[in-house]
Amino acid sequence: EVQLVESGGGLVQPGRSLRLSCTASGFTFGDYAMSWVRQAPGKGLEWVGFIRSKAYGGTTEYAASVKGRFTISRDDSKSIAYLQMNSLKTEDTAVYYCTRDRPKAPEVDFDYWGQGTLVTVSS
Amino acid sequence: QSALTQPPSVSGSPGQSVTISCTGTSSDVGSYNRVSWYQQPPGTAPKLMIYEVSNRPSGVPDRFSGSKSGNTASLTISGLQAEDEADYYCSSYTSSSTPVVFGGGTKLTVL
Known about the structure:
The structure holds two protein chains of two kinds. By secondary structure, chain A is an all-beta fold. Chain A is 0% helix and 50% strand. In chain A, a hairpin with an 8-residue loop joins strand 9 and strand 10. In chain B, 0% of the residues lie in helices and 43% in strands. Chain B has strands at residues 9-12, 18-23, 35-40, 47-50, 64-69, 72-77, 86-93, 100-102, 106-110. In chain B, a hairpin with a 2-residue loop joins strand 5 (64-69) and strand 6. The model of chain B has no long low-confidence stretch (mean pLDDT 95). The A-B interface holds A 37, 44-47, 61, 63-64, 97, 102, 106-116 and B 2, 34, 36, 38, 45-48, 51-52, 57, 89, 91-93, 97-105.
């Protein structure tokens, strides 16, 4: 059974940093691209970014709203994807979901989702 | 404002059919068959219901179907059930700088 478990969320002050983790199980993690999608309270879904599998270079892409501030990485030996968030803003407050991307480029379909972790940016 | 436009809400009675629209542009829905639909019941994570316009992942009931015409994609739910009550989001690949965009979401109420 595919499982994705996010961790690392919490309350953080504006301008500070936070790192989220997504621990995967039930599939060969290294074969898949992984994405992060967020949802502000009471709002819709917003794609944050993804990281391709090593077979496709392990490259990353990001939404314009987070580019230069957020970094996605992966540790295939531990089956973990990370979202490093720097220079956080109040508008980054959201539930952050880790997703597995369907194995067809471009990686824009998300076939499994974690339960999400809440990040609150406030002073 | 979301890149894809969905109606804020739709409703139907048990057993009826409802259709949710998702309107984009020639830069996304109109040019690529990479439209997906997600179901999000209250307080839970989204679930993939349709991918590549009209394909259902394993385990999704065939009451859910997807289609596309021009710049508009649609999700049709037939034989409505109480458990279908949820928010539904469409997404599409886009040729813009951001490769995927979502719709604003549609709240389905089963009367």
